[in-house]
Amino acid sequence: MDNIIENALNIYTDGSSKSKPWRGGVGVKYVVEFSNGKIFADSHVLPGYPNATVPKMELKACVLGLERARKLDVYNRVNKIVSWSDSRYVVDNYRSALYAWYESHWFNKDGRPIANATEWKEFRKIYFTIRKENKYIEIRWLRGHSGDVHHAEAHRLAKLSAEVPFQKALSYIGIRKRQSLYRTSVGSVCLRGQKMAIRIKTAEYLREQKLHKYAYEVIEKNSSDYEKSDIAFSNILLREGGRYVVDFNANGKNPRILKMIREIDDTSRTGRCS
After folding, report:
1. Could you tell me the CATH number of the domain that includes residue 250?
2. pTM score, whole prediction
């Protein structure tokens, strides 16, 4: 059974990401079913993006769906916009992006940077642009792979989009292969304000918060967290693949690298702090 609101511009969006090579795509389909029985439908295969995660693409699909809706002839014939997504990430967080996160300059209550802040900022801008045009907006959730033909089409378009990443990367992420046995797990490293030797796996600059986001692995062999991998933020520039002795804070809810004490020579694999 299709999810559709009569006399409203229904926007079905989906985001897709593939790891080899790492790139993402977006799919958008528009449907209006008028009370007189007439139906308008349109869909787009949009170029994808390199280095993009699924949550980022799901959010970007919603943004692009709303932005492109204003260019449709049918846009001026409706007073209601309904954006359908199977992403709990988008549906559960968009209200926070409209008000709380914006007012806190894209940090949560613990001071941790909000992920995908640039895309959330874009969402907020287009949301209020449409509201100023006297149109009501709903962001609704629908279950993925539930048989809705319109969302299935958006999903198909998103996978096609991921095959043609012609857009500029939404953010630069420097990546190095992991050398430890563990994948990155948020909160796996217990922060106690300690000094520790680490290796940077990925590095991303968060331009809205003016911070660097690092995925790191612990290389200090005398540490109980040896080989564990976690996330931390810092205003210190470190390079992906680099090995450093650093000072951490003692707040697992807002993990920060406070100081780079020294860089470890790549020829030395002891990883011990002195």
Report:
1. 2.40.50
2. 0.89
